[in-house]
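FORM 12-B: Structure-to-Sequence Request
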């Protein structure tokens, strides 16, 4: 769909290649013709001295006034990984509200597709997130995008909202999921409310996986244009306590390198690298007894399961709407205190170095630990690595994460499981879930 100036057809639908060679006419007036824009991915603006395109994905809103002005608000790219709201306005040669409304509707239909317009969003800002900068980040980079898209914001009636947006790190989404899970209508609440993250914390894995970015403004745009997508949650039990997990759980080098280096925060992100290297050279092991309900045992089977699942993603209508009086479903495999199901596989691990179970791919921008994970395949991706590897082999294995070759490393045991149990043999240690320390007991 194109906006051209002058007296030729202003809303013709040229290809992007043809448009790149177009020369605009010197006029500020606009006519319109709402045509089928199939095949066109951008709105082409022909202005006085230049022609540029706006991807339909970046268009936030459009409206016309009684005096014949058409105003379009869009997310303008201001850096490689950031956007901000911008406005273009055109004067119609022949104001016609009916035809203008029809054209605007066609534009917004292309801009949003199946995504809901004007989402009603409950925004939760963690004032301590991102070293205390979450409030400033929200008002500077996020709120303007949501406002330009005419989203309705409010400071939780599950019938009144479509989205809960957490301006925080990964801790607040975790709390929201568990808060919804404690309701008497938990199943319905978790089905109806989309929980998203607007990245304002030190750990923003939820946004990396939900939105494909850890930039606040791009995340806001992704939420405005986002489609409701089913997401698996896993139940974590320790003793008789049950919590909901959306991200990961880890025991071993990764957990200890995070939690045991708190006194080295002055090193920044290098403290984690330092913590890992120290434990690699010490060949630190974390003896444990593990039991798993395996769904896909080999890397070839995992790869095939990923391809099959990725080719047919679930939509919001592919799962039935729960009854309004339904809470969380009962635990499928009981708690850590129950007898082990007979179809589980027991795996003693006297030389365990890393135990990492994930529900999403990215744990940080450069850490695609679980490249075969899917949002709703009913599985956790489980990674195990020995702790007594030669130092060079261990370092190559860990650095392979940034190079996206981690999955194929020979020392990486990668399975898809529907459940697991892990009991540590040592009396003290570190376990992490969602970046928060877990109790050191059977999980």
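FORM 12-B RESPONSE
SEQUENCE OUT:
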């Amino acid at each position: 769909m194109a906006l051209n100036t002058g007296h030729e057809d202003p809303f013709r639908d040229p290809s992007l290649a043809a448009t790149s060679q177009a020369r605009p006419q010197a006029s500020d007036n606009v006519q319109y013709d709402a045509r089928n824009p199939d095949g066109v991915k951008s709105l082409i603006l022909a202005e006085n001295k230049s022609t540029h395109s706006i991807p339909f994905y970046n268009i936030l809103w459009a409206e016309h006034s009684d005096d014949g002005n058409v105003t379009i608000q869009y997310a303008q790219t201001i850096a490689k990984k950031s956007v901000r709201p911008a406005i273009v306005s055109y004067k119609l040669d022949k104001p016609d509200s009916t035809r203008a409304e029809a054209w605007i509707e066609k534009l917004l239909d292309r801009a949003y597709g199946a995504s809901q317009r004007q989402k009603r969003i409950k925004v939760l800002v963690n004032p301590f997130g991102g070293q205390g900068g979450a409030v400033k980040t929200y008002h500077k980079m996020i709120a303007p995008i949501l406002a330009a898209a005419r989203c309705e914001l409010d400071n939780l009636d599950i019938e009144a909202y479509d989205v809960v947006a957490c301006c925080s790190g990964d801790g607040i989404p975790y709390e929201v999921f568990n808060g919804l899970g404690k309701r008497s209508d938990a199943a319905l609440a978790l089905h109806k409310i989309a929980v998203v993250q607007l990245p304002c914390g030190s750990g923003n894995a939820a946004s990396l996986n939900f939105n494909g970015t850890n930039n606040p403004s791009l995340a806001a745009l992704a939420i405005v244009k986002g489609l409701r997508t089913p997401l698996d949650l896993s139940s974590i039990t320790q003793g008789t306590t049950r919590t909901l997990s959306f991200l990961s759980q880890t025991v071993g080098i990764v957990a200890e390198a995070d939690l045991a280096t708190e006194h080295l925060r002055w090193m920044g992100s290098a403290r984690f690298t330092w913590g890992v290297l120290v434990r690699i050279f010490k060949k630190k092991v974390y003896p444990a007894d593990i039991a798993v309900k395996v769904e896909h045992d080999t890397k070839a089977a995992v790869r095939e399961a990923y391809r099959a699942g990725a080719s047919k993603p679930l939509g919001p209508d592919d799962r039935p709407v729960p009854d309004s009086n339904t809470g969380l479903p009962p635990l499928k495999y009981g708690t850590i205190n129950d007898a082990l199901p007979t179809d589980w596989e027991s795996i003693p691990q006297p030389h365990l170095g890393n135990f990492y179970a994930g529900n999403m791919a990215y744990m940080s921008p450069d850490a695609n630990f679980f490249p075969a994970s899917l949002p709703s395949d009913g599985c956790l991706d489980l990674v195990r690595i020995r702790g007594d590897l030669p130092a060079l082999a261990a370092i190559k294995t860990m650095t392979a994460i940034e190079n996206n070759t981690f999955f194929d490393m020979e020392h990486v045991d990668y399975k898809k499981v529907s459940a697991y149990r892990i009991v540590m043999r040592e009396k003290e240690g570190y376990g992490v879930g969602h970046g928060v320390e877990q109790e050191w007991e059977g999980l």
